[in-house]
Design a protein that fits this description.
The protein is mainly beta and 199 residues long. The chain has one domain: Sulfite Oxidase, Chain A, domain 2 (Alpha-Beta Complex), CATH 3.90.420.10. Helices cover 7% and strands 29% of the residues. The chain is globular, with a radius of gyration of 17 Å. The two termini are 30 Å apart.
Length: 199
Amino acid sequence: MGIVSRGFHGKRRDGGDRLPPGQYLVEDFPVLSAGPTPRVPLERWEFAIDTEAGQTHRWSWDELMALPQETPTVDIHCVTKWSKLDTTWEGVSLDVLFEDVESAADYALIYSYGGYTTNVPVEDLLDGKAWIAHRFDGEELAPQHGGPARLVVPHLYFWKSAKWVRGIRLLNEDYPGFWETAGYHNYGDPWREQRYEGD
């Protein structure tokens, strides 16, 4: 008789049609990071979008706070197989930040304080699909969850929602980020179980 770990069989637990294949529900908010937690003072924080033509658009913390805010409620799915339903964030839609950005780039490399990077197609950042979030569940976003601000792209595995986000570099060619270079899937669709290269 073999030993079966709880982590290796299905535990759908009421997720129904909202739970992608191979995922299980959590009530808490697990903390997973690739390195130490950066501490970024708000007076030194900035966010930038760098175009493929070399133009840079920058926002300070106060400028970000002055932009129209949204409070999306979304489900999130981690590549380590946990999912959390109905998470509520507050932040700025990428549609707002891209309003004055002239670019024909198809690809984006997201970069963070602390050196983390991840790649996302530009079309997956627009049309109400992504936010720079600074609050979670009515509270300021805690540093261990990516505060003061993180990217939230809920339709992709959560490693694409870069913590401690610092900027977006727009590119004409796709360029893999930290986990993608280490063998994770280049796109990361949880509904197609695109966890690792070749999935």
